[in-house]
């Protein structure tokens, strides 16, 4: 894996690269299964579970404030990409539209294609988490999760759902796709929460 595409970090960048990770300059695509093609006009986003059920459209999302984000991206398969530039909508702005049951403690992300992944609410509802619809100034390509994905920069990238289409709020922690297959319930790259499951 080392060599042309994966580099040991320069010393000045090493404090940005979590243990056991290597830098890549490209942006690898990591998808389990098919890449869905979704037209923004048909895109729908649902909230349910321990929250008042609601369906949102693309224009509901687009009417929220847009922000630029530059964030590092860490995949548990050991590649990291620094300074990825996104445009997106803050989770905290979206959550103003959600009527949450006070008993909610966790959220399961749902996607076109059936992928799921869990987060506790503290890891989900953070100022630097966002729904991304542009990558390096262009509409988010479908292989990277377009038209819309979640980005949770402080955790391994399997927690950043591509083609996200819903949030199921929960009063308990429930495993998503990779967590059922042995990945850690939380996935902090700095403490190498790679495996562990539930
Ligand atoms: N819906 C969906 N989201 C997903 C995945 C997936 O297979 N399906 N893979 C995850 C993993 S393991 C990683 S590392 C990142 C990769 O994002 P990228 O393909 O844009 O690099 O997306 C995450 N989100
Ligand atoms: Mo990954």
UniProtKB/TrEMBL annotation:
Residues 33-178 form the Oxidoreductase molybdopterin-binding domain. It holds the Pfam family Oxidored_molyb. It comes from the Bacteria. This is Oxidoreductase molybdopterin binding. It comes from Gloeothece citriformis (strain PCC 7424) (Cyanothece sp. (strain PCC 7424)). The lineage of its organism: Bacteria, Bacillati, Cyanobacteriota, Cyanophyceae, Oscillatoriophycideae.
